Amino acid sequence: MDKLPTLTYKDQRKIFFRLMKFAQPHKKTILYAFSLLLLTTIGDVLGPIIIKVFIDDYLTPRLFSYWPLVSLGFAYLMIQIVNVVISYFQLLKFQEIALKIIQQIRVDVFTKVQGLGMKYFDKTPAGSIVSRVTNDTEAIKDMFVSVLVSFIQGTFLLTGIFIAMFALNSRLALFCLFILPIIFMIMKLYRKYSSLFYQDMRERLSELNAKLSESLQGMSIIQVFRQEKRLREEFGHINKKHYLAGMKNIKVDGLLLRPAIDLVYVAALILVLSFFGITSINQPVEIGVLYAFVNYLDRFFEPVNQIMMRLSLFQQAIIASSRVFKLLDEEEMAPSQIVMNHNSNKINEGEVTFKNVSFSYDGQKDVLKNISFSVKPGETVALVGHTGSGKSSIINLLMRFYEYNRGEILIDGQNIKSYHMEELRQKMGLVLQDPFLFYGTIKENIRLHHDHISDREVEEAATFVQAHSFIDKLPGGYSHKVVERGSTLSGGQRQLLAFARTIATKPKILVLDEATANIDTETEEAIQAALSKMREGRTTIAIAHRLSTIQDANLILVLHQGEVVERGSHQELLSKRGIYHKMYLLQNGLVEGMEAAIAKE
Question: Which residues, other chains included, contact 479 with Cβ-Cβ below 8 Å and sequence gap of 6+?
Fold first, then answer.
């Protein structure tokens, strides 16, 4: 699990300004929302002044002129009504801006994930990635929706209140300024400690998601091997860490948010009342001014409290943003193509050549060493070998899932890097041992939303691979709903759909990773016949564990510890009586022959 370094104040400031760049496309809407916010602030400031005028100019001297009082009452009422209306539109606009920004961030993150190399997914749990795309972006949304609106609205209101206070009594307003450095000190102290605890909380939440995702994907294995108790304990352990981090943060919130600010408010109120009490000894006190000051103090601390309460959301958003930006800045990208112009190479024949290709996953130990072979259209090359010999690595390099370190891979005599990735994906068909089906219909899983593939071509592809008969028996036929990962279909049925999906795209190069492993013997015979037709005119590279499926291959490469140790046809390799011969004897249950081969060595 990736662990982020502790964020300094400088780091948090960089993250905040980077977040603000997402707001640049919405300048006009933001300006409009700010103008509405300014109007509501003016309305909030004018309210206490009208009441002050009423108290000092009419109530205290007992002057009850009808029209002036009606005018004051009407003005106060209209200000409140207009404020409510403007506040609605102002909040609506800020929410709209926030949702559009988060929408863009999520699209950017999802797009980034789609372009990452397989090496990144090898080292990062899927749940952790999901957490960044969903939970972390949701925390960022809370900042734009709640925090920034509160901060900006509070700043506007605080400025307006201090202007009004200075207009009423500049000396007392000057005394009240002492509360600002105290509030800033509390905010700084809160930011320092809460950032540590929130960062810990986000990491624990990411671990929870990763553990949950892993458990759901492996539920059948968990139940079969009775691992429920162990998983519950592991989940509970992570959950407890999340709880403890949350409790630390709650303690900081409880000390430095409302209670500390309330204490400052009481001190400011005592100062104001003491000032009026002392000045009343020598001169009369204007009750309206006293009311206005107390009211302004109350209104002053209301946005301060709101800001302080939102600081927790702000810290969560900054920590979440750092995690999202770490993903956006990830450099473990999918292998890049070197395309010199728009008229890039096209795959016409599909001849594949490996020239002294070496590859390492970790940059230290080679899993492939000087691999060389060539496959012409219509030919089949089979890769065999024990687990870990490098068979899948060859496929991964050909499909451009990983970047090879040394050597060269050619298609039709051109470096594989000189083709657009779209051209490679379009002309190469891959069938894995464990096929992946998407939620949707049978038809959609075969077509994969390629609009140029018609319903007739979908049915032809299914018929070609012997899948039409079982599809026709399903409720709805080709419109039958496939649940997540196709779990209601058998392994063989899922494999047949994967074959149909590949054939429907009419690829030039076929890549088969033990594609018939999950199919029964009867269906396998039909599939082998279909594959024979499908391989005509196409380049085929197949990984095989069952040697009976690749006896007709033009070339069989026997891999051992990343090297090609034997090569030839089925009969040629048997005559060599090497590794391939031993594998063949073992798979066919020829124990005596196997023992004789071992004894001979």
Answer: 441, 442, 443
